[in-house]
Amino acid sequence: MLPQSLKNLTDQLSCLPGLGQRSATRLAFYLLNQPQKDLTTLARAINEVKAKTKTCPRCFNLTSGADLCAVCSDKKRRQNLICVVEDILDIVSIERTRHFNGVYHVLGGLISPLDGLTPDKLHIRELAGRIKQMAGQSAEIILALNPTTEGDTTALYLEKLLTPLKVNITKLNRGLATGSDLEYADETTLLNALKFRH
User: Fold this and answer.
1) Dihedral class, residue 129 (left if φ above 0, else alpha if ψ from -120 to 50, else beta)
2) Most buried among 41, 75, 120, 169, by the most CB within 10 A?
3) What gap in Å lies between CA 75 and CA 68, rounded to an integer?
4) Which 3-state string (H, E, C) describes 108-147?
5) CATH 1.10.8.420 region(s) of the chain?
């Protein structure tokens, strides 16, 4: 029924998160009706995103070509205040509050043995290394992990691992509902969770 090129585009779009077949078809028709220069610009941006986006070697946030990400290289941020998050989208959510002035550490997941995610598959060793390098700097580690079973398990593991390093460990206040994701929390809820961490 559809031309093969349009069907191929619809199939590719439907692989994206949150896009079912119907939404993908609508989006494909939308793109079909756009000027060629806009489609060329979009295609270039899609091609470049993978090639030009790197991982920060310090915190595992994203960076574009620079050695360190914008957060790690910002001299105005407190380098001894590390907010530990599950993934990069959590950084985006916390940054929207415009309240946090420290740096981040992206674990790359949460401990979940059933899903094959054990501590050695996360960026936990690198976090411990960062903290050891800050010896004597009165560092604070904020465990900003989702209030889920996996998030709580990971937080408990990190507390046991990091406590001997004599670092102040805090957690976000539970203004966040159990089972929720930081990514979907509004700015006010996140701001209060940061302010009243314990």
Assistant:
1) alpha
2) 169
3) 12
4) CCCCEHHHCECHHHCCHHHHHHHHHHCCCCCCEEEECCCC
5) 4-52
For the chain, residues with pLDDT lower than 70 are 66, 174-179, 196, 198
Handedness of CA 26, 27, 28, 32 (dihedral sign): positive
Strands (E), 18-139: 54-55, 62-63, 78-85, 102-106
d(CA 71, CA 148): 27
Which CATH number applies to 70-195?
3.40.1360.10
Our measurement of the distance from residue 71's CA atom to the centroid of its chain's CA atoms, rounded to an integer in Å, reads 13
Q: Which of 56, 106, 111, 62 is nearest to 82 (CA)?
A: 106
Q: What is each CA distance from 20 to 5, 24, 111, 131, in whole angstroms?
A: 18, 6, 30, 43
Residue owning tokens 């031309």: 3
Amino acid 38: pLDDT? 95
CATH class of segment(s) 4-52: mainly alpha
**Which of 46, 78, 73 has its CA nearest to residue 57?**
73
List the end-to-end C-alpha distance of the chain, in Å, as a whole number.
59
Output the pLDDT for position 160: 96
pTM for the model? 0.80
